[in-house]
Structure formats: structure tokens, C-alpha cells
Specification:
Radius of gyration: 14 Å
Strand order of the largest sheet: 1-2-5-4-3
Helix content: 25-40%
Structural class: alpha+beta
Oligomer: single chain
Number of helices: 2
Strand content: 25-35%
Largest sheet: 5 strands, antiparallel
Number of domains: 1
Order of helices and strands: EEHHEEE
Shape: globular
């Protein structure tokens, strides 16, 4: 993972999955598909919105950590992975 910067409490970077990510990939893939599944009017259907909420809850239950190139592990509160892009929110006790 390459950290590109920060937008308030959110870190932004480039994501390259490691060998152990495969077991966690399905909910992130579904999240990405749902985030881009807009109808003609630009909104999600009610069913897609419900499914998105469900997969976000599933992702939020993961005890995710980021492993930086330095070897440092960073615990995170929220995580979004959309193809090669990653956004995360760390808890307030983690320094940047």
C-alpha cells in the first residue's frame, strides 16, 4: 500500500492486495460493485442500498489493520477498497 495523502481523518492511497487478502476480498468487491451501481437518475435502488448497508456493516466488523511498507501495523476503524484505491479512517490514537 502506498499512502498518497489525507483528507481530514481519512487516509488515501494505492492498494495492492497481499497473499492473505483473498479471504477478505469478497465483501470489498461487492461494496465496489454496489457503489458504482447507479440507476439512470444517479441513485441506488432501495434493494441495492439495503445490500450496500449490509456489506458495509460486514466490512466494519473486520478488525482491519494496514501494513505499511515500513512494517508498521496501523489499526483502522473504517476501510474502503475500490479496485486499486484505498481509503481508511484510523482511530484518534494513531499518529500519522
Amino acid at each position: 500500500m502506498l499512502v498518497k495523502g489525507w483528507d481530514g481523518p481519512w487516509g488515501i492511497g494505492d492498494f495492492t492486495p497481499g497473499e492473505h487478502f483473498a479471504q477478505f476480498a469478497p465483501p470489498f468487491g461487492l461494496w465496489s460493485l454496489l457503489m458504482h451501481a447507479k440507476t439512470v437518475d444517479g441513485c441506488l435502488s432501495h434493494a441495492a442500498s439495503d445490500e450496500l448497508r449490509s456489506v458495509e456493516c460486514e466490512i466494519d466488523t473486520l478488525r482491519a489493520e494496514l501494513l505499511l511498507d515500513t512494517g508498521e501495523r496501523r489499526p483502522i476503524l473504517q476501510l474502503n477498497i475500490d479496485g486499486p484505491l484505498i481509503e481508511w479512517k484510523e482511530d484518534g490514537s494513531t499518529s500519522r
